[in-house]
Amino acid sequence: MAHTGRVLIAADKFKGSLTAVEVAEHVTVGLGRARPDLEIRALPVADGGDGTVEAAVADGFERHEVEVTGPLGAPVTAAFALRDGTAVIEMAQASGLQLMPPKVFAPLTATTYGCGEVLRAALDAGARTILLGVGGSATTDGGTGMLQALGAQFLDEDGDPVPHGGGPLRELVSADLSGLDERLAQVDVILASDVDNPLTGPKGAAAVYGPQKGAGEEDIAVLDAGLTQLVQVLAESVGTSATEAAEAPGAGAAGGVGYGALVGLGATFRPGIEVLLEVVGFAEALKSADLVITGEGSLDAQTLHGKAPAGVADAARKAGKRVVAVCGRLGVDESALRGAGIARAYSLGSIESDTRKSMANAGPLLEQVAETLAEEQL
């Protein structure tokens, strides 16, 4: 197979071990050892969650940093990416679980206010299209914090702003979106997520994702009641569109930030990987590739449902390109992989079965795996 000379690496991060940029670097080293003659192009990807801004910056977007309100109210530094009027924002940078101290959770009070501040900074920087990547949030506030930062009001029966977080939403009596930043009306906001859950109920934001944010059963009930109250109050304020949006795919993403974006920002929901591939020019890069290498830390059944490698494989398959994957842990069989358009997967687990050691030595192991991949596939 030595005729294959051009390789496109479009892999996501190995969570807890390597960023998407580092994955591409180590794969490049391994491929080069086996085949120094290869033409290799790296296009790190993400699905809207953490790593999305970094993937855009790796593709030439300009990185902007801004100090905003973190999920617990303390200041944090968040980055967004900007190129030619298109801003890439990752809500996890301002309101993500990774910003919480170890073993600290605040399921009822964590806020998305900082996410709204990042959006405002992007507007200030001249953004006309905003790609809002949501995922990895510490919050379940229905996006109310984000909208407050942009000028909306959420008031209790005394006419005071309800406190931050999803818990206090049960006290919500009125909402006023008329004060939202006027520039939002002139901007296209795309809600990019790999999650298509509705806002409330057994498949909603609180029930499905609350536990990973530290919510126990009672907390989940409180949060779901708060989100239900939010929908009712917004329906009185803006009409039935608020009720319909709660059932829309992606409304439950990132603790309901999806809902806040759909109702308050007029956002359009799209699968995160699909949007990011467009933003980084994947289709153009694909044209000259003989082989595409995708992957992520854990290649499992979830991967095949809308995560980055599935999106890459789907786009590559439609273009008639061969796709293989690299991963830390492989949790699906060959037929499932082939069904997703991935010819073969190479896992670090095949060299190092101890997960902790595999994660600690992910870089060198990935180089070994890439070397084997090159020998067998190229």
UniProtKB/TrEMBL annotation:
The keyword Transferase applies. GO terms for biological process: organic acid phosphorylation. Gene3D superfamilies: Glycerate kinase, domain 1 (3.40.50.10350), Glycerate kinase, domain 2 (3.90.1510.10). One of its GO terms (molecular function) is glycerate kinase activity. InterPro entries: Glyc_kinase_flavodox-like_fold, Glycerate_kinase, Glycerate_kinase_RE-like, Glycerate_kinase_sf. Keywords: Kinase, Transferase. The keyword Kinase applies. Belongs to the glycerate kinase type-1 family. This is Glycerate kinase. It comes from Streptomyces oceani.
